[in-house]
Amino acid sequence: MHHKVRSLGDENLSLAExxxxxxxxxxxxxxxxxxxxxxxxxxxKKTIPNQRFHWFLLKGAFFxxxxxxxxxxxxxxx
Length: 78
Fold this sequence. Notes:
Layout (H helix, E strand, L loop, with lengths): L14 H13 L10 H10 L5 H15 L11
């Protein structure tokens, strides 16, 4: 459930919601921070490089949308 686009709605912030937020911070290259300080996001990005992860995502998304132009990828659950 951590790939859902919308919040899980759990007021206690379940583990899946924390992973969903972390994935979104990573996927957005730190543009979305959920209130985390920019310095922390930069430090994590410097400590754990993404090893061309975003290139992998772009390539996969391109091939998905070529084959299924009107269907969102299966990992994008609402």
